[in-house]
Design goal:
The structure holds two protein chains of two kinds. By secondary structure, chain A is mainly β. Chain A has no helices and eleven strands. In chain A, a hairpin with a 3-residue loop joins strand 4 and strand 5. By secondary structure, chain B is mostly beta strands. In chain B, strands 2, 4, 5, 9, 10 and 11 form a six-stranded mixed beta sheet that branches. In chain B, strand 4 and strand 5 form a beta hairpin. Chain B starts with a strand and ends with a strand.
Chain lengths: ~110, ~110
């Protein structure tokens, strides 16, 4: 089954404790992105990747890192999480930049 | 001004009603337009792309007005299963730059 898989689905952590949210897609898509969704603000892009080893900042990259060492994986790293990073995070992939974006099921992160 | 603006709703309508959502975008260089559907606490899923000539998919009709920079979605004969949040999405030039509206919530009641 074609899908985008994120883990974990839910995470509660403390300020400053490094964490990684994994994202994997099995559709051989070139483009992958990370978004955060906050009430009243819609989804905002954090980082995106056009292909292996090619990444760039989105609209809200501060406090986040990404890597794209393999085509299928695009992990999101929070080196020192803060409470303002409490949010619902989605990973997405698409075949090309103008085709349908497929989303993972989301990761609900709470930083206390 | 937000880059993509939508009426947040909620729109509360009875089954069988026709409901229309509008969305405006600020960047005249926007290239592609979409409506996504998001169920509560779930991931967004593509409902339909929006083409310049307008397009229809069953009970759903999407329209684009480039001159006025707005997009619309019309849902006819609403079903209970149409209850969800509808996201207006605009793609700018460049790589996978999707701009999402905050969404319009629809609640269809019996």
């Amino acid at each position: 089954e074609a899908q985008v898989t994120q883990n974990p689905r839910y995470l509660i952590t403390v300020t400053g404790k490094k964490l990684t949210v994994t994202c994997s897609q099995n559709m051989n898509h070139e483009y992958m992105s990370w978004y955060r969704q906050d009430p009243g603000l819609g989804l905002r892009q954090i980082y995106y990747s056009m292909n292996v080893e090619v990444t760039d900042k989105g609209d809200v990259p501060e406090g986040y890192k990404v890597s794209r060492k393999e085509k299928r994986n695009f992990p999101l790293i929070l080196e020192s999480p803060s409470p303002n990073q409490t949010s619902l995070y989605f990973c997405a992939s698409s075949l090309r930049d103008n085709t349908e974006a497929f989303f993972g099921q989301g990761t609900r992160l709470t930083v206390v | 001004r937000k880059e993509v603006e939508q009426d947040p709703g909620p729109f509360n309508v009875p089954e069988g009603a026709t409901v229309a959502f509008n969305c405006t975008y600020s960047n005249s260089a926007s290239q592609s337009f979409f409506w996504y559907r998001q169920d509560c606490r779930k991931e967004p899923k593509l409902l339909m792309s929006v083409y310049s000539s307008g397009n229809e998919d069953g009970r759903f009709t999407a329209q684009l007005n480039r001159a006025s920079q707005y997009i619309s979605l019309l849902i006819r004969d609403s079903k209970l299963s149409d209850s969800a949040t509808y996201l207006c999405v605009v793609r700018w030039g460049g790589y996978n730059k999707l701009i999402f509206g905050a969404g319009t919530r629809l609640a269809v009641h019996p």
